[in-house]
Amino acid sequence: MEFIETTSLYWYAIHVRSRHEFKVLDRLTKAGIDAFLPAVERLSRWKDRKKLISFPLFPGYLFVHIRKMYEDMLTVLKTHGVVRFISLIPGEPEAVPDDQIISLKIVLENKETVDPYPYLKEGQKVRIRKGPLAGAHGLLVKRESQHMLVLSVDILQQGISVKVDASDVETL
Length: 172
Description:
By secondary structure, the protein is α+β, with helices and mostly antiparallel strands.
């Protein structure tokens, strides 16, 4: 495993133990590593009560913002609950493009209703030009009579969708 020493930070997707996403996020944060766990709140119902619970948007995965250096990657891998870095070529972690992380953060920070969406690679790439989601990039698809912006995370081959007004969208 050979890495170029650099001071630039890159986003990497990591696979974590099942149902350990929030614990790993806490451990990484305490170790001084910038980590991002896309999560959504859903209403859970029990017999006697209802409560808003946070669920990982991509179960089993979260993102770390680190340098492409052996020491940084080893620190992440040594964190209890981390299984591996996601990579296309074994042993060479694949960086997640910044615009994919930024778009996820924009949508989640605005508390939009999101649904997991099948991974798409083909389609019209668009950017939201106005409104609370301005700056988010993704694919525009039509589901029933509504337009949806699909944000894909290529390395995970997963995505999410959010309802958008087609007039707020411009092609790239």
